[in-house]
Structure formats: C-alpha cells, structure tokens
Amino acid sequence: MRYTNKYNLPDYVVEFLESDSYDYEEGVISATRLLTPARQFVLNHRFKDELEMDISDIIPSRYGTAIHELVSGVKLTNCLQEQRLYTDIEINGKVYKLSGKFDIIKDMDKPVRKLVDIKSTSVWSYIYDSKTKDYITQLSIYRYLANKNGLNVGKDAEIMMVFTDWSRKRSESSSNYPETRIKIKEIKLWSESETEEYIKFRLGLFDKCLDMDESELPDCNDEELWRDKPKYEVVIKDRVVKTCSSEEKAKQHIEKYKLDAKINIKKGDAKRCEYCTVRKFCSQYIKLKEEQQQL
Predict the structure, then answer these.
(1) pTM
(2) CB 138: neighbour CB atoms within 10 A?
(3) What digits encode the pLDDT tens for the residues 80-111?
(4) Among 36, 40, 91, 98, CA closest to 208
C-alpha cells in the first residue's frame, strides 16, 4: 500500500497513522477478508503492489485499533483475549488456510463460552441496525474457528459497540438514541453447518474468480455496495415536485393531484466505492461514476 498526504499532515502524524500492528500472513484468508465482495477480493490480490490511499483515510481504523489495544492490555477475569485461530478448508482439491482473531471469549470457567467482539462505529449503524448481518457472519466464522480449536463457544454472542460520534445532548432528547457511548448488542450466531456452508461457498467463489479477466468478474451487488435505497421522483417539466420512497407512492401522488407528470427513478449512492482502494482498477466503479454524472 502506498500512502498519499493530500492535506499535508505533519510527519509525526503520518508516522503514527502509517504504523500497522495487524498480523498479515501471506497465503492465509482471514474471516474479515472472506466477507469482502469477490470483485474486491480479486482486484486487491491482483493489484496489491499498486494500491494507494490517503493517510487521512486511515484515521477511523486507528480509532478501532486504539480501543482494541486498550482492552487487550487489561487481563479480563475468566476471559481469553486476542488470539488468532486457524483451520484448513479444502475447495476443488486446493487447501485454503482460514484464520480469525477474536477479541474476547468470556466465561472461560464455564463449559460453554461466549464470544464478544468490539466495534468502534457510528451511532447510526446502531439506530438503523445496518451492520448486524455482517456482525453475525463474522462472529459465526470466529465461533467455527474457535470450536475447531476445541474452545466450545455457543451461539449467543455480544457486540460491544463503541460510538465514535455519540452526543450526550441527543441521548437526553431521543428515545431511540443510545444512552451511553458504549452499547452491548446481543446477537445469535449460525450453526456450525451453516457457517461451514458459507465458508466453502465464499472460498469456492474466490477460487473461481481469481483467474477471470476483470471484465468477467461478478459485479458487487447493491448490498455489497452499501447502496442506499432508490428514490422515486415525481417530475413535471424537468422539475422534481415530490420525492417518494416507492414507485407505488409516486403513482398515488400523481393520481391524487391529477398531475401530468412522469416518474424518475434515482438510484442510491454506492457508498462502499468511496472507501474501496481498488476502485481505479474497477470497471464497475467507472460505470457507476458515469451513471451518477449523467443524472
């Protein structure tokens, strides 16, 4: 990865942000990497020596790293902390090494233990419940790895959500806003058979895509793109007079007011592309950008 510094941050800030304690391993696929879209996975692999990122874009991940290091520096009672686990998975005659580093396994003094994962995130991901599916998937893989290594972890798990944008004022005025900067979210994980099926499907997809030309790679779908839901605009003579959440509501508005209007579908923004380090090598991103400019 090559870093740029377009905001001219001082050298000591750059040095701090560039430091990376993540234990990368060549030839090993991590649980988090398994969750990435196939297109992104392949392009990351193919252009790893040409990737570029501005140093300022690392700041959010360093928040997360700091919180993890703070917790891992304390020996928690009846807990196992920050261990990387491995297992081998065979796909199409090839053996892949899968790894995952859990944050905490608590209740080590009990027959069945519980996974806890620490996430630094926005309050809005909690309010809109936008990341729960990814949390369940990731921790189900950690559970699978833990049990393959004899740790006997159950299906109940916890997410310790640490909010980077929490506001005390909002917490006092809104009922659905978290009352503290930390919120514990309970989740239920997949069975081991469901998890193994998912792991083998993802590894099989990656294996198939690695030899494809870029133009043949499967596009990231709307969910993978973190795409907003489309909006339906009621348009009269090139002027938007009403924006609706569904085509049916737009039609109802036109009928109610007997308008001579058309409905324009405005696709949601592909938010993941903003953070994707391989977008300049991606024909889907170029196409999405051209479509956005034409709107």
Answers:
(1) 0.89
(2) 24
(3) 999 999 999 999 889 999 999 999 999 999 99
(4) 91
- Spatial separation of the C-alpha atoms in residues 20 and 156, rounded to whole Å: 31
Give me the residue spans of the domains in the chain: 2-216, 231-294
For 52-87, how does the pLDDT look when each residue is reduced to its tens digit (9 = 90+)?
A: 999 999 888 888 888 888 888 999 999 999 999 999
> Looking at the domain 2-216, which fold is it?
Lambda Exonuclease; Chain A (3.90.320)
Q: And the tokens for 40?
A: 């992104």
Residue 112 sits at the vertex; the CA angle it makes with 102 and 88, to the nearest 5 degrees, is 45
